[in-house]
Specification:
Layout: H1 3-17, E1 20-27, H2 31-41, H3 46-54, H4 60-79, E2 88-97, E3 101-106, E4 112-117, E5 120-128
Length: 131
Amino acid sequence: MGKRKKLAADARKAALKTQYFAKLQNVPSSPRKMRYVVDLVRGMEVTRALATLKFCKKAASAEVEKLLRSAISNWEQKNERKAENGELFISKIFVDEGATLKRMRPAPQGRGYRIRKRSNHVTLFVDTKND
């Protein structure tokens, strides 16, 4: 690794140490389905977002709820105190495309149709309102 890239990588790592986040990788659902759930809670206060995710009928909402609880726990561990009601909110949340497994499905007349089994990565940042 060159010196310039090394300095940039170190700067990114130092910036992440001051932020509170959680990552969920290789979730076996399509990014499009996950983005639907993520858009429901983007920018929301944490307790309200947890309630929204708990009563959402989408299967992806359970994964995002677990991720949000992990991000809250990370914030509490770094600040060495419990999060108060109304203090934390979701500052940034995004879904990236993961690896795609390519499979073949039998089709009529000796053909094969291509099946794409998609996966995604979700990253969630929490922060306090006064920052």
